[in-house]
Amino acid sequence: MAETATARRSRITPEREAELYAAVLDLLREVGYDALTMDAVAARTKSSKATLYRQWGSKAELVVRAMRHSKPGNIADIDTGSLRGDFLALLAREDDCVMEQNSALMRALAMAVHSNPDLLKAFRELLIEPEIVEMRKVLQRAVDRGEIRPDNPAMDYVLHMVIGGFAARTFIDDLPPTQEFLRKYFEAVVFPALGV
Amino acid sequence: MAETATARRSRITPEREAELYAAVLDLLREVGYDALTMDAVAARTKSSKATLYRQWGSKAELVVRAMRHSKPGNIADIDTGSLRGDFLALLAREDDCVMEQNSALMRALAMAVHSNPDLLKAFRELLIEPEIVEMRKVLQRAVDRGEIRPDNPAMDYVLHMVIGGFAARTFIDDLPPTQEFLRKYFEAVVFPALGV
């Protein structure tokens, strides 16, 4: 799926692609996933619907690629020399305002996947699975440095813990996730569970 | 809010109340929160809308009370003599089938709260806050027994961890939460973070 999409998308410039993705995320914030139509995307971006379908195949793929494009680089590219450093650098990539916007979009998408099998597939293939792979690299480096025991079972659950902190912050505490909250959560939960 | 509602509800029998709540949860599963109307509840339960509003005040309160009614008792009533025992007993209360149904309902409700301020208020007051209070009692007993250090910061995040395990299981792993998964997650994440 990723290769085909890249081949398809190579026909437009990176600038145009970024513009289209920004418009899709704006629309997503305004109306949500279910009400977002390819017609609206075409109108907002002054493209034809045929072009959108040729380049992205489906609304689900377009939306998930737009989300992925807005992400600040790969987790595994952060390499500070310690797991604690890597995780804190990961948090520091997004200021609180961007973090709140992204977590709201992520939440909206995570909700919509439950009634849209195509969206769930794209969401898992393009957002969740790459994140799992990248996270494994970060954790493997920590194992290689001797920071984490190779058999520590918490390694399989780092994304569950992080997503839990994010998602639960909103509806347990009625507060947006912030860098400060997530730093405390990492210190209290994620690092102790990993034994660092 | 709780006292007023109890006073209001005392006019109907517990059997009738249970019947009404079951019908509300059935409707919620069938159509979701936004499409659920007081008219539909009235029709399904052969009540008048005026009665429903008199007894529950609002759709949000009716739905949240129905969810709360379906919960298997208070967390704090479980008292096995160890925190590990309490948490494992907590998991054992619901078999996988019931757990999947409840987590789907909880997820649907947790999504709907983001666009319904009344529902968010009822959800927090009737489902989340009592759970936080009950969880604190379970943790306080563990502190009193010397199982957890009184200054362990992970105590503030037990619900975040648990909800993370539940919610993330569905869309990270594309699998329903099960007793087996949650037991592993508790052993790998929750117990180590709490230092037990």
Q: How would you concisely characterize the structure shown here?
A:
Chain A has 196 residues and is an all-alpha fold. Chain A is 73% helix and 0% strand.
Largest interface by Cβ-Cβ < 8 Å: A-B, 38 and 38 residues
Overall number of strands of chain A: 0
- Number of contiguous helices of chain A: 10
Please name the CATH architecture of the largest domain in chain A. Answer: Orthogonal Bundle
Report the structural category of chain A.
Answer: mainly alpha
CATH class of the largest domain in chain A: Mainly Alpha
Distance between the termini of chain A: 37 Å
Low-confidence stretches of chain A: none
Main beta sheet of chain A: strand number and arrangement? none
Report the sheet-strand fraction of chain A. Answer: under 5%
